[in-house]
């Protein structure tokens, strides 16, 4: 038995604009926490206050002042704020996308020199105190970095940022240190609960950012394990990260499978600790490739929990998509589009392998009622619970109903692709006000298309499950 840590365990992917098939930048993540823990999808309107506001976390008491101007932004908060907001991902009106966080872990040597701060900033607060106050991805890294330096961090995290020009991945280490790397335009990255960033080049501020005192901190505390210490480079993963048994069985297999999907000719093992953070795919990657990665569970290998491997193999590694996924998102920023229509928040409620990614234009003014005000127990009129119910009904008879589920997902992919194409062709000439209203109508319609398809699937499964009860009897017709 592997001694797993108590993980809030997500899986992330980033695709540069020259690595994608249509020139899009994509940042994406599965938000994994615990099963049956609903999410909402909301839009906070632009607001200008007379006085500075104050954020106070219900999670750990972290608090800080906020600017008077708050940009409009979308988010996916928890169904209850009793334990904090956890807004997790969204776009703001400037076209900046943010996803927070990919939980990571700092090694004990680094933590001994710079402990976590109990009431410092954590995942729960990051989107709320950063996204509405920045106009570029680089500004997002800078703002969050300054918060970590001043208030400290209560946990170790990886944070994804993007705008129409570039994508960034940022990691915190210990209580006050951090680095960030710009993802090369022609590359992709997959991350799974480990410090991922490797080489940090302090002579290249265009492509790297870092906390001001990190070099001095590393040197004074003798944290760099490399044989050839350099004042110009560090390996952040080796200096701050972990590489223990939990990583081997819980984290690295997910990274391995991502590279297997996009670079199958590369020769890595599921337990390899030296898989690169940045890589180039053997083809241009599409939105569907990212959806497939977030929805995957080692298909085509003996490690698939619903595959044909041995019972030991099927439960050896933690899959990418699993029952504890609350929502999965792909924040896509498309080229040559006006900002309100360039960003699409592809949102999958519940388990990615059993749900569908619904496109929501970032420039909309509101979200559907079925995506707001979720409750902690099942309710048939809520999006999260509708998608969750379909998976729960299919699970016990996957061989029989799995094909129906997959057909529904495949059909919705095509419908949503066509819906986006149709909407894109209709926005020319619309004013900003008209565009916001139009995109809201498009989003509401797409949301309903997804729910209608899943309610039909639920109806089919229930109707055809009535004869599968163990309380049954087949009578011999000769009697």
UniProtKB/TrEMBL annotation:
<dbReference type="InterPro" id="IPR047804">
    <property type="entry name" value="C69_dipept_A-like"/>
</dbReference>
<dbReference type="InterPro" id="IPR005322">
    <property type="entry name" value="Peptidase_C69"/>
</dbReference>
<protein>
    <recommendedName>
        <fullName>Dipeptidase</fullName>
        <ecNumber>3.4.-.-</ecNumber>
    </recommendedName>
</protein>
<dbReference type="Pfam" id="PF03577">
    <property type="entry name" value="Peptidase_C69"/>
</dbReference>
<keyword id="KW-0224">Dipeptidase</keyword>
<dbReference type="GO" id="GO:0006508">
    <property type="term" value="P:proteolysis"/>
</dbReference>
<dbReference type="GO" id="GO:0016805">
    <property type="term" value="F:dipeptidase activity"/>
</dbReference>
<comment type="similarity">
    <text>Belongs to the peptidase C69 family.</text>
</comment>
<keyword id="KW-0645">Protease</keyword>
<dbReference type="GO" id="GO:0070004">
    <property type="term" value="F:cysteine-type exopeptidase activity"/>
</dbReference>
<keyword id="KW-0378">Hydrolase</keyword>
């Amino acid at each position: 038995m592997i001694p797993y840590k108590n993980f809030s365990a997500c899986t992330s992917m980033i695709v540069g604009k020259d690595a994608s098939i249509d020139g899009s930048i994509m940042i994406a993540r599965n938000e994994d926490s615990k099963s049956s823990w609903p999410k909402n999808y909301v839009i906070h309107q632009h607001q200008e206050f007379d006085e500075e506001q104050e954020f106070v976390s219900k999670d750990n008491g972290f608090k800080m002042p906020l600017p008077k101007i708050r940009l409009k932004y979308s988010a996916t908060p928890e169904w209850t704020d009793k334990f904090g907001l956890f807004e997790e991902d969204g776009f703001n009106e400037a076209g900046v996308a943010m996803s927070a966080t990919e939980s990571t872990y700092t090694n004990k040597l680094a933590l001994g020199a710079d402990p976590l701060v109990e009431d410092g900033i954590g995942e729960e607060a990051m989107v709320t105190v950063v996204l509405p106050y920045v106009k570029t991805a680089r500004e997002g890294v800078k703002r969050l970095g300054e918060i970590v330096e001043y208030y400290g961090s209560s946990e170790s995290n990886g944070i994804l940022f993007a705008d129409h020009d570039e994508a960034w991945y940022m990691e915190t280490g210990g209580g006050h240190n951090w680095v960030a790397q710009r993802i090369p335009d022609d590359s992709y990255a997959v991350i799974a609960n480990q410090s991922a960033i490797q080489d940090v080049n302090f002579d290249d501020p265009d492509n790297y950012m870092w906390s001001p005192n990190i070099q001095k901190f590393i040197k004074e505390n003798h944290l760099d394990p490399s044989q050839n210490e350099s004042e110009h480079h560090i390996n952040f993963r080796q200096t701050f990260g972990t590489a223990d048994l939990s990583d081997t069985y819980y984290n690295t297999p997910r990274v391995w499978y991502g590279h297997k999907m996009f670079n199958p000719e590369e020769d890595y093992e599921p337990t390899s600790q030296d898989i690169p953070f940045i890589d180039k795919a053997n083809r241009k990657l599409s939105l569907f490739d990212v959806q497939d990665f977030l929805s995957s569970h080692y298909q085509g290998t003996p490690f698939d929990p619903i595959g044909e491997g041995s019972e030991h193999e099927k439960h050896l590694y933690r899959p990418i998509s699993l029952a504890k996924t609350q929502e999965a998102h792909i924040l896509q920023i498309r080229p040559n589009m006006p900002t309100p229509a360039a960003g699409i928040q592809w949102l999958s409620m519940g388990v990615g392998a059993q749900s569908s990614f619904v496109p929501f234009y970032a420039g909309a003014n509101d979200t559907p009622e079925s995506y707001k005000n979720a409750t902690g127990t099942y309710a048939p009129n809520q999006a999260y619970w509708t998608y969750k119910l379909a998976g729960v009904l299919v699970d016990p008879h996957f061989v029989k109903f799995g094909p129906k589920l997959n057909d529904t997902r495949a059909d919705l992919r095509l419908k949503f692709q066509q819906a986006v194409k149709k909407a894109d062709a209709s926005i020319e000439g619309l004013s900003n006000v008209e565009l916001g209203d139009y995109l809201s109508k498009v989003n509401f319609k797409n949301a309903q298309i997804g729910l209608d398809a899943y309610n039909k699937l639920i109806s089919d499964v229930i109707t055809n499950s009535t004869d599968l009860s163990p309380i049954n009897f087949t009578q011999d017709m000769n009697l």
